[in-house]
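Working notes for the structural subgroup meeting. M.R. asked for a predicted model of this chain before we commit to crystallization trials. I am recording the input and output together here so anyone reviewing the notebook later can reproduce the run.

Input as submitted:
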Amino acid sequence: MEITQPILFYTIGYPGSGKTTFAISFSKDSNAEHLYADKLGIQIFQTPRYSQEERKHVLEEMDWLALTNLQGNVGVVYDANINSFSEREHLRDIAKKANTVAVGIWIKTPISIAKRRLSEIRRIGNVNIRQMTDKNRANNEFKKIVNRFEAPRSSEMTLMISGIDPYDQQLKEIGKSLRNIQVK
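Returned structure, recorded in token form:
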């Protein structure tokens, strides 16, 4: 997929919805920089505790990387739990600073499937890890994120894809929708 302008794409969806799986492939196909919060958190903290302070630090670093890439004419796929209106508004402000747009990609997945996926082994780089090894803590964090989730508003530039469709189908849907998006 050829995207001729730098765009800040950001993922929306529950943990386990398929955001990272989509973001990895989409960043390659769109020649965009993949900024992955979980991987960056491990690079910064080695053994992250997933605290609010750590999340804030990771997102600040991602914001800086996003702006730097966009200003360098490189698109970005911002892969984190960006599930509130205020977080998405913040990303739109970053895109404006770089004279481009921010586009949300909502990976809509049933909660039961997302929760099951979270229990599966994840790979970051060459290391197999589990999102969180304590199942009770992982379940509590999942519930918190689901309860705080704010569906995108009609005023937001958001593309919706199914988190259970194969990537080729997701890409086809994104491609159709992107034809109507232009940088101002």
